[in-house]
Design brief:
Strand content of chain B: under 5%
Largest sheet of chain A: none
Radius of gyration of chain B: 24 Å
Shape of chain B: elongated
Shape of chain A: flat
Order of helices and strands of chain A: HHHHH
Structural class of chain A: mainly alpha
Number of strands of chain B: 0
Number of helices of chain B: 8
Oligomer: heterodimer
Distance between the termini of chain B: 69 Å
Structural class of chain B: mainly alpha
Largest sheet of chain B: none
Largest interface: A-B, 53 and 53 residues
Chain lengths: 132, 216
């Protein structure tokens, strides 16, 4: 009984990625228009943060920091879409799944390290706090 | 146990003419290239974790100057902007090489690959110049935790780009010898992902390390 249901499962599973893989093959290598759009967008998204920081346009370091972080996130998304040709359908959705998993780990690594080490600093090194 | 295996045998022999062919034939058409791309993507994701760890290290110790120089004293933003543009140009020229590859123009593909390689060399050259300049000023990796983390993060990225250039040259030789056969196209696609991925990492580096460093 269980063997029969086990045997059936891979089949049902295998049919799904295969169906989706058909669609992505044509557009996965990009087009001239796609590359140019990505390039123009990334030039703009790179130039603005450099201008903001080098010209001190906003006059507030904290605000500038937040704004350029926002630009970086947008530019990473632009590169993912136009240069790396990410979409939800490529490889039957496995690439996006791997990306989401990796991003989760990256966020845990970054926020976890900062959070833990910040508390270590504040709790164990009061001298450090006085200096800041 | 015995009945279980015999039913499994029956099932497979009985279904052989219909079911497995329908399954294998349909996937066999796309599978070799598809699985390589997915596998390479998974490698890139694991590489992403390496960079995440280095970014986290930099985020934690990036302000521990040990009474040494701070980012504001060291970083030369016009040089970083030039460096960034080199990598950005190399990304678009690699894109052009892929488009020529798709259309089957071997010479044009090689030309764009060569241009990409030159931009890559310019990037690594500028980075080495910057490192040399920093070390000459006494801002060595041993100077402070900030500088150790900085050299490790930026150096690892530079090492990736350098190996990417080596890979690019090898692929140009392969394409020259064998032409744009399916294997070479697959390899060029892998390098394309690697190259664009490094550009994505560099966005994080110039924003988080250089621009934010100068702000603080």
């Amino acid at each position: 009984m269980s063997a029969a249901s086990n045997a059936r499962q891979p089949h049902g599973h295998g049919a799904h990625p295969h169906d989706a893989a058909h669609g992505d093959h044509g557009g996965s290598h990009g087009s001239f228009k796609g590359y140019m759009t990505g390039f123009v967008l990334s030039v703009i998204l790179t130039a603005i943060p450099f201008i903001l920081v080098m010209g001190d346009v906003l006059g507030n370091d904290r605000l500038t920091g937040l704004v350029i972080m926002g630009f970086a996130v947008v530019q990473i998304v632009v590169h993912m879409i136009y240069f790396l040709h990410m979409n939800t359908k490529s490889e039957g959705g496995w690439t996006i799944l791997a990306l989401i998993f990796t991003l989760t780990l990256v966020i845990i690594t970054l926020t976890g390290s900062l959070w833990v080490m910040y508390h270590l600093n504040t709790n164990m090194m009061p001298m450090h706090m006085n200096m800041r | 146990m015995a009945s279980h295996s015999s039913t499994a045998m029956n099932l497979s022999t009985g279904a052989e003419p219909v079911d497995p062919t329908a399954f294998y034939d349909a996937t066999g058409e796309h599978h070799p290239e598809g699985s390589t791309m997915l596998g390479f993507w998974l490698y890139l994701m694991s590489d992403c974790l390496i960079f995440a760890a280095l970014f986290a290290t930099y985020a934690v110790v990036g302000r521990n100057y040990a009474a040494g120089p701070s980012p504001k004293d060291l970083f030369d933003l016009p040089l970083v902007a030039l460096n960034t543009s080199m990598l950005l140009f190399s990304s678009i020229t690699y894109g052009f090489a892929m488009l020529e590859m798709e259309r089957g123009y071997l010479a044009r593909c090689q030309l764009w690959l060569a241009v990409t390689g030159l931009f890559g060399i310019a990037f690594v050259g500028l980075e080495l110049y910057e490192f040399h300049h920093l070390i000459h000023e006494g801002a060595t990796p041993q100077r402070s935790a900030f500088l150790s983390a900085f050299f490790t993060l930026v150096g690892t990225h530079g090492l990736h780009v350098s190996l990417g250039i080596v890979w690019l040259v090898i692929l140009m030789v392969q394409v020259h010898r064998r032409g744009l056969v399916a294997e070479n196209k697959r390899r060029l696609l892998c390098l394309s992902m690697f190259w664009h991925f490094l550009d994505v990492v560099w966005i994080g580096v110039f924003t988080f390390v250089y621009l934010m460093g100068v702000l603080q």
